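Protein modeling request. Please complete all fields; requests missing the sequence field cannot be processed.
Requester role: graduate student
Desired output: 3D structure, token encoding
Chains: 1
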Amino acid sequence: MTFQRSSKLKIDGFKMKLRMPQLKIGDKTAGIPIVQGGMGVGISLSGLASAVAEAGGIGVIAANAIGMLEPDYHQNGLEANKRALRKEIRKARKQTDGIIGVNIMVALNDFHELLQISIEEKIDMVFLGAGLPLKGIPVAQLQEAGVKVVPIVSSARAAQLIFKYWHKTYDTVPDAVVVEGPKAGGHLGFKEEQINDPQFALENLIPGVVKEIAVFEELTGKSIPVIAAGGVFYGEDIYKFFQLGAGGVQMATRFVATDECDADQKFKETYLACKEEDIMIIKSPVGMPGRAIRNQFLEEVQAGERKKYRCPWRCLDHCGARTAQYCISQALDSARHGDMLNGYAFAGANAYKVDRILSVKKLVKQLKLEYLKTVINDTVHLRQEFEDACKRLNAIKKEYSVIFNKSALSLKSDFTKQMEKGHASVQKEVAHILEKLESLKREYSHYFEKVNELKDQLSRYLDITPLQIQEPTFPK
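Delivered output (476 residues):
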């Protein structure tokens, strides 16, 4: 293998495409297939989102409790949220021409108001999670403003429900879908007993969602990428989910440990200091399981200590604010400021793997290299498997021809000699040879399909256009 001056790699004379695929959502195309996950409260704002967008990915501002950036949040949470979101979108726009999205929890009491701000600001796309975006979605306004809609789901069933409802009610479907597995950070869309159940692992969820979405792609004639999320950490993970049918990935944990992340340095250092055993599942005041990094605050809560707080405003109807031991928005906001004694950090299952803080640009470069290294290694193996299959294909056809020609001559001679004695033995031999030939045909067809499948896989990375594979024709 040798690197060429054209920035392509050669593997045994075949040119290899040295780049990550792009991610196209509607008429928006990201240079790299990476969505930065929305992280609240205030972890992913304009600073991180614009840096990711500049690096070619999709940067996402988290809208939940974003009004805590404003001085009057406790007096007027709704207006503070709307004002802060508008400010952050405009700040991000000043820093980049790249793709910017907003993550809005459907369960929020001000969901529709925050969605309206996103439409007014003509955000590139909205990511809608923590609930099903079904009723009352202003689809016409979203389309007129050019805003793409990407629901976040945790199962093929949820994806089907959303897309089916949209198609029937709005005569359209969302533009993409994020599938978030149980290794994600923050609130999880799974029951506690499902989190470590292999049946619900992301790699087992993706194929089902891809299959479900393919139905709506055919129905609408629209390309709808499936984006894998939850536990995606290395470039190798990106490649793995691409092989399962995903068109992109969403990553959050990796982007916390960057210079541009909007959280305090102490928050980022919590990631650097944590060990695998520090990653824990908690029961959030909102009634859902969540994944966070163990610290004194959480240990005190587990021990039954009730923290002092006042509910800023009823941001969630189903939040157990009156009976909860703490306000989750206040705890997360304290952590954002680096006050880990009065808060804690949500984190993905792989947070303990974070070993340094670097710029978004360097992180993206590292992810690209990890991805390409995996592609190269896999392509070398695919190439060998491809060549072996081609050789077997040729050997089968040669064996078929030899047996056919030899048997035809032999049987003709034997048949003539044995006509007077009766030809039962000849018929038996003919039947045996025909069975052998049919077996070779079946094996040839199997390898023909295998070679074409390998050719399709290799064509993603190698220029193999000149290669011609003959259709399975045989002498009769």
